[in-house]
Amino acid sequence: MSFTFVGSGIEWFGNTDRRHGISKVFIDGQMVQRVDQWSSSARRQQRLFWVFDLPLAKHTIKIVNTGQHRSGSKGSVIDVDAFVVMKESKTTQSLQPQELPSQQAAKPAGAPFMQNLVVNPTPQSHWTMLQEGTTGVHAMQLSVISETHAIIVDKVEHNLLTISGHPAWAALYNLKTHALKPLNMQSNSFCAGGTFLGNGTLINVGGNPVVDDITNAADFGDVDGLQAIRIFEPCDSEDVDNCDMYENHSRIRMASPRWYNTVLRISDGSAMIIGGSKKGGWINNQTTNNPTIEYFPPKFGGLPIQLDFLLYTMNSNLFPIAISLPDERVFMAANRDAMIYNWKTNTEVKLPQIPNGVRVTYPMTGTGILLPLTPENGYTPEVLICGGSAVDDTKADYEISSQDPASAQCSRIILSDNGIAAGWQVEQMPEARIMPDAVLLPTGQVLIANGAKTGISGYGNVADQVGASNADNPVFTPVLYDPRAPVGQRFSSVGMPTSDIPRLYHSVATLTPEGNIMVAGSNPNLDRSETKYGTEYRVEWINPPYMNMARPALVEGSARPKKIDFFQDFQLQVDLPQNAQDIRVVLMDLGYVTHAVHSNSRLVHLPSSLDGNTLTVTGPPNAGIYPPGPGFIYIVVGGVPSVGMKVMIGDGQGPKVDKDALDNMLTKTKVDQNESDS
């Protein structure tokens, strides 16, 4: 068969099973590849051939059934479900053409379609935005893993990046070159959470089951992800060829299924896994709610522990906001409520309700962040929660509109006795936002980006969807929040660039080691889509004014600590601007970002003194102030930060493994429980 098209690339989708055989693919009369559609099990909607680097012109693809079969017998089936034609659009920027089956790893990204596009060029004292690079897989989840790379995790869908003959759903992104490396994933990581452990290992937790009904995006041989704990070992080298994801559900898993769970590193370096739903859906309900926490590695017997908080915060309580506090307890917010949880004694202390009926967790999604911890105020924690919606979460989906207004409210509370008694301080952002991202900067300011002015999170639910999106009216301009400024003067959009890319459901943003902000994602769709608010692969970089200023730096070639223990003094050889004033050293966790949850995000000021070009710094006082694990140190002089340096805080050891708890969990729970129950 032949098909003529005008474009710069094309994909062929079809089926595979034992009946299918070998074909030849020709482009414009030249044979470019042999494709074998045989597989041991039947799979639908597989991408069989793709090429993305053709000149933008008229081309013809021709597929010839050779009649050959892997078994050596004659006769075989070849089929074509669909062709997808590319026209040098947002989805094909910087992706390389298909590689031979033996070479199916991503090459370094080429020159993207809109590479180096500066949005709203402004004077040096203002902010700029740059479009450069593409993620290859949609960026539903994002975390910086080293000074050179970030990890991106998606769900099972027809992404453009390929691994092992099928579209990938996770990748490493080179922050310097924009090159991509696809990662092997066994299970569906749709709406999973993540965190680093005390030894620097990253875990990706939860996800979606194998779906075989109308909501199935694709079948790439993935397995149930609801109980999955995926392991990504520390990968600090610029060479990431040997870095990959590991899964072994028979030994490494959760005790119960979780979708839309929050994962938090706590003061002993382990992970607290909070809430979620027992299976996929739209909003939580009594049938699917998982009102429990558990830990990795397992502790306290290894089985889930019920939280009353996750019962009375129904229905809008998925992806709860969670923050580890200096006293080692955990702040949580879900729906309109908040509390402090003592995980050592399993006790909950209610906090004042978030004002004005605003709900702040999925699908009425807001964002929450711990404001900077400083020795000057005794490391007293203060929490900021912005955005969300006051829509009634007991309404049916068809009673909710994509035009329902989001909330502009920011609520702030000091978590001391006096602060709790005073309650939440309410402020208003310049624009309402559902699904915003709050990114801590080394300066102590907070950049709020992404989101929409109306609607709710999710896709395919409300009565008047836009494309498939439950939200509409994207917010294109970030806003800067300065927590130290007087009330009424904390928000500013002066000099801020305005994007032209909607960043709605499944968008992310993070600080990078360079000090700028990486913005990616947006996919309120079942699968890769080109409808309005379609799947977004382009990456934007928001550059604060300090990116163009003379910046403090470490002396090149000088010794740098790789590990810093609590209350340990260490020295840095620094190159500072002349007459440097207001010198600060900040330790930052850049967080694990998904669904507006910036898990573990934190900034701690470290005491320091300068003698010549030697800066003597003292590590954080204890594991409450900064839970053991990876972090980045920035030197900030007069509001201008250096490039971040990655360090390990603590002794670098993994969290304690309670063998009895682990064995109890493995004995009393089932592997991929959702599948066996079904």
UniProtKB/TrEMBL annotation:
Return the InterPro entries for the record.
Gal_Oxase/kelch_b-propeller, Gal_Oxidase_central_sf, Glyoxal_oxidase_N, GO-like_E_set, Ig-like_fold, Ig_E-set
Q: Which domain of life is it from?
A: Eukaryota
Q: Which residues form the Galactose oxidase-like Early set domain?
A: 561-649
**Domain Glyoxal oxidase N-terminal stretches:** 168-546
Which Pfam family is an annotated match for this chain, by its short name? GO-like_E_set
Could you tell me the keywords of this UniProt record?
A: Signal
**How is this protein named in the record?**
Copper radical oxidase
